[in-house]
Amino acid sequence: MTITTAGPDIVDAGVPGPEWAAEVRRLADLRGATLLAHNYQLPAIQDVADHVGDSLALSRIAASAPEDTIVFCGVHFMAETAKILAPEKTVLIPDARAGCSLADSITADELREWKADFPDAVVVSYVNTTAEVKALTDICCTSSNAVEVVESIDPDRTVLFLPDQFLGAHVKRVTGRTNMHIWAGECHVHAGINGDELTAQATAHPDADLFVHPECGCATSALYLAGEGAVPADKVKILSTGGMLDAARTTGAREVLVATEIGMLHQLRRAAPEIDFQPVNAKASCRYMKMITPEALLRSLRDGTDEVHLDRAVADAARASVEAMIAIGTPGGGGE
Ligand code: 13P
Ligand code: SF4
């Protein structure tokens, strides 16, 4: 289906205005589509979407939405997860080149080899993985439920946790599990938020809360600071993007230092305008997330591109691992 739209000048010099938003909504209605946006999307994309949330919350919304078409403003593994959960729906991502350095850090062949070394292990994969990797996984997790997922596994079984080393280290620390092997992958954006920056900011803002995404290279450092008494332990919160929004609504702090991708600040400031949210690293921007431009969203709605297609057998196997996670019950956060 191709739909007639206003010309490209509707996005003036990259800054979309009310005409762009009205055109997006008109085209979404014509296509019978719902628009989902991850918390790291550009503010204009978040504001025009039907739902904004973390990766798990959005996938669940995609599966239960009454619309037949999902336009997923996020990165490719997220749109794939929506397609895995809703195979009968048309899932569009405005730019299929929007990948993820963390998902790229393990291939299906590498996982097959790792599994061969530990044939009795339970494989736990973060949702930031390709559908092929999910298909080789026993149970998926996200940053909002990784601890619960690992705790749900028989303590006598060896766990292979992938691909994020920092999230893995966090889960290992919290669960105290020793029979857990962790893949050495990382997200280039979060690995770049380091302990030195966090220490400097925490020292400069002694009354601020610290919201830290567990993918951060600084997660260990934040806990170290707390352990040393440099930052009161109750000020350090290791949270998924959705968890940060929930915490923003309840914290008594007037200032919060945020250690994650900077797109997150938009939803946090909307959720709690009275709090001063500041990034630990103002340059922590995910170039893949920002490939979903206002122009790309218009093009997607007009031309029905880029559609996500998955091999049936891969999708079925991947669905089992995602549904095993959902059965554990944490809904994800920040979806509205
Ligand atoms: P969430 O699962 O917290 O939404 O994070 C996804 C992600 O890509 C973090 O970099
Ligand atoms: Fe992937 Fe990192 Fe971007 Fe999240 S911030 S989508 S983990 S590259």
TrEMBL record:
The keyword Nucleotide-binding does not apply. This is Quinolinate synthase. It holds the Pfam family NadA. Its EC number is 2.5.1.72. SUPFAM superfamilies: NadA-like. Gene3D superfamilies: NadA-like (3.40.50.10800). GO terms for molecular function: transferase activity. Keywords: 4Fe-4S, Iron, Iron-sulfur, Metal-binding, Pyridine nucleotide biosynthesis, Transferase. Its cofactor is [4Fe-4S] cluster. The keyword Metal-binding applies. Pathway: Cofactor biosynthesis; NAD(+) biosynthesis; quinolinate from iminoaspartate: step 1/1. It comes from Williamsia deligens. It is an enzyme of class 2 (transferase). It comes from the Bacteria.
